[in-house]
Design goal:
The protein is α+β, with helices and mostly antiparallel strands and 291 residues long. The chain has 8 helices and 16 strands. The chain has a domain of 198 residues: 4-Layer Sandwich (Double-stranded beta-helix). α1 links the parallel β2 and β3. The chain is globular and about 50 Å long. The termini are far apart. Bound molecules: N-oxalylglycine and manganese (II) ion. The site of manganese (II) ion has 4 residues, from loops.
Length: 291
């Protein structure tokens, strides 16, 4: 078993873990420790792990099966489990800010949680900072259990028992990207997800929204729904709930998509930023909190 060193990064969430070499998948006892730390702290940071994509995939598989993203413009051409959060293409060439891939990736500047538009959304994501930004490009994570617990009654009463629509196509409207074709829409139809969810492992309740995909709330007029989503988002973005990650080369950051949201801060589009992500696939639909 590895002797892990664990350091708290923020009172709300996030720990740094050293004493591991991710070129080899951890042994089962270490995996149990990592899983416990993950459930307790929501975001795990493993610094200085200069691993290749195959090692990244092998480590990620210790936590479950992996998603293969449905769009070729985001997937790696070499290894389909790698989701490229990058302004550099597979051939290593910097893409201009108006390139459709770059525009889509830039939407990560809005708060979201990954794959919430799937009927069985992702469990978690593992992001490798291959080439990091120094002009911005921090990744901010918010603890949605803490957000839920601290919600003022005025907001909590409005969302009680409700579901929000998670629509992958909403992303394209936000960025003025080409609308999805009917085949693309059929491949990823919008889904209603409870706004108060129970985590299947910890049994804790969190607020579940993913604003880049949300534009409707069940039983609400659109203007009212938009206002509520915007109020919830503003509340969730209070610094007391957020761990801001400043990247160093070859940081690996792992988060739980079931109880956090994240966003990246803007950076100079002339600077290369290459981040490779694996996405741990969900195995069950989102569980609603009891009314
Ligand atoms: C992601 C994402 C933010 C970043 O990988 O899912 O939103 O900092 N990335 O690149
Ligand atoms: Mn993301």
């Amino acid at each position: 078993m590895s002797a892990l060193t664990v350091r708290e990064l923020h009172p709300a969430l996030g720990v740094e873990i050293t004493g591991l070499d991710l070129r080899q998948p951890p042994d089962p006892a270490t995996m149990r420790q990592l899983h416990d730390l993950w459930m307790r702290h929501l975001v795990l940071v493993y610094p200085s792990q200069d691993i290749d994509d195959a090692q990244h995939i092998a480590f990620s598989r210790c936590f479950g099966g992996l998603e293969v993203h449905h769009q070729a413009i985001i997937r790696s051409r070499f290894l389909p489990e790698i989701f490229r959060v990058s302004n550099v293409n597979d051939d290593g060439v910097l893409m201009p800010p108006d390139h459709p891939t770059v525009r889509q990736v830039a939407l990560a500047q809005f708060w979201h949680t990954d794959s919430s538009f799937r009927t069985q959304p992702s469990i978690g994501s593992i992001l490798h900072g291959v080439e990091i930004s120094r002009t911005g490009g921090e990744t901010h994570f918010t603890n949605m259990y803490a957000v839920y617990e601290a919600l003022p009654a005025s907001l909590k009463n409005q969302l009680r028992g409700r579901r929000a629509l998670h629509d992958f196509g909403h992303l394209h409207k936000l960025a003025n990207l080409k609308p999805l074709t009917s085949e693309e829409r059929a491949a990823m139809p919008p889904v209603w997800q409870p706004m108060e969810r129970v985590h299947p492992v910890t049994k804790r309740i969190s607020l579940y929204i993913s604003p880049i995909y949300n534009d409707e709330i069940e039983g609400m007029q659109q203007a009212e729904a938009r206002q509520l989503l915007s109020d919830l988002q503003a509340f969730a973005a209070e610094p007391r709930f957020i761990y801001p990650h400043r990247w160093e080369p070859h940081d690996i950051v792992q988060w739980d998509n079931r109880c956090t949201m994240h966003q990246v801060t803007p950076f100079d589009p002339g600077e290369r930023r290459v981040m490779h992500r694996t996405t741990i696939a969900g195995t069950e639909p989102v569980l609603a909190a009891a009314a």
